[in-house]
Amino acid sequence: MEGGAVAQFLPLILIFAIMYFLLIRPQQKKLKDHQAMVNAVRRGDLVVTQGGIIGKVVKVREDGEVEVEIAEGVKVRVIKSTLADVKSKTEPAEAA
């Protein structure tokens, strides 16, 4: 009977393993990459928000927000996690 119980649960275990490797694991990696990108945003970067607005980061705030200049003299505050992409990165500042 023990062999029969294992045989019944084997398809369920295989389905879970396939779901993990095809769905869960890639999603976690994508989330981790996005979080790293958001944490690496700095002043001068050209960013795209999830709403499709393209602008240049003017100021990175401590409270999880960035100030983005979308036109000359027009600045908006955007929550960091809503940044979809960083188009061009500025060079990191050299430590003196």
TrEMBL record:
Q: Which GO terms describe its cellular component?
A: plasma membrane
Topology in the lipid bilayer is annotated as: Single-pass membrane protein
* Compartment(s) where it occurs, according to its Swiss-Prot or TrEMBL record: Cell membrane
Q: What InterPro entries does the record point to?
A: Preprotein_translocase_YajC
Pfam families for the chain: YajC
GO terms, biological process: protein transport
Keywords, sorted A to Z:
Cell membrane, Membrane, Protein transport, Translocation, Transmembrane, Transmembrane helix, Transport
Membrane-traversing stretches: 6-24
> What family does this belong to?
Belongs to the YajC family.
Task: Please give the function described in this protein's UniProt entry.
Answer: The SecYEG-SecDF-YajC-YidC holo-translocon (HTL) protein secretase/insertase is a supercomplex required for protein secretion, insertion of proteins into membranes, and assembly of membrane protein complexes. While the SecYEG complex is essential for assembly of a number of proteins and complexes, the SecDF-YajC-YidC subcomplex facilitates these functions.
Q: How does it assemble?
A: Part of the SecDF-YidC-YajC translocase complex. The SecDF-YidC-YajC translocase forms a supercomplex with SecYEG, called the holo-translocon (HTL).
Q: What is this protein called?
A: Sec translocon accessory complex subunit YajC
Species name: Pseudooceanicola nitratireducens
